[in-house]
Amino acid sequence: MIRSILIHPDPRLKKVSDPVTQVTEEMSRLARDMLETMYEAPGIGLAAPQIAVSKRLIVMDCMKAPEVPRSVIMFNPQVIWSSSEVSTYEEGCLSIPDQYADVSRPASVTVAWMDETGAAREETFEGLWATCVQHEIDHLNGKLFIDYLGMMKRQLITRKMEKLKRERARS
């Protein structure tokens, strides 16, 4: 089922999410809905707070090739190591449509999480995957990619999103 994606500014996007205590059928269904929503948007990552669910759950697929998907579902993901090397990517966000900015983050990170079976997993991500997983984990901590920008640029984007929300409400 495709879910509605919250648009910034929305106070639910700034809230720290609650841990997932166990992977239930309901949580697995939520993860599948999130993947469907992400692919439909289209995007490469989605965090539960973006669909108004305050749980530590993210999904992502940075393959950018629908014929070779590599969907990843992460419950309670956390970065346990990050490189001192930094990379900069032009980031966007499904909750901040059509707005992009360069953000610098560690070039590679090791993430620990619980998968959809409840098993503990750990993997090191690099390149776009590293950027995406850090971006999505930020959502779980109430942080948006625009929080890395200067105040003027952040305010400009926020005003654009407020206008977009007003326009959508009218139609």
Tell me about this structure.
The protein has 171 residues and is an alpha+beta fold. The chain has a single domain (11-165), classed as Peptide deformylase (Peptide Deformylase, Alpha-Beta Complex), CATH 3.90.45.10. 29% of the residues lie in helices and 30% in strands. It has three helices and seven strands. The strands form two sheets. Strands 1-2-3-6-7 form a five-stranded antiparallel sheet. The longest helix is centred in the C-terminal third of the chain and has 20 residues, at 151-170. The radius of gyration is 16 Å and the shape is globular.
Question: Main attributes?
Answer:
Peptide Deformylase, 5-stranded antiparallel beta sheet
How are the SSEs ordered, and which strands pair?
Blueprint: H1 25-40, E1 45-47, E2 57-60, E3 72-82, E4 86-93, E5 96-106, E6 108-114, E7 120-126, H2 127-140, H3 151-170
Fraction in beta strands: 25-35%
Structural class estimated from helices and strands: alpha+beta
Low-confidence stretches: none
Known CATH architecture: Alpha-Beta Complex
Mean of pLDDT: 96
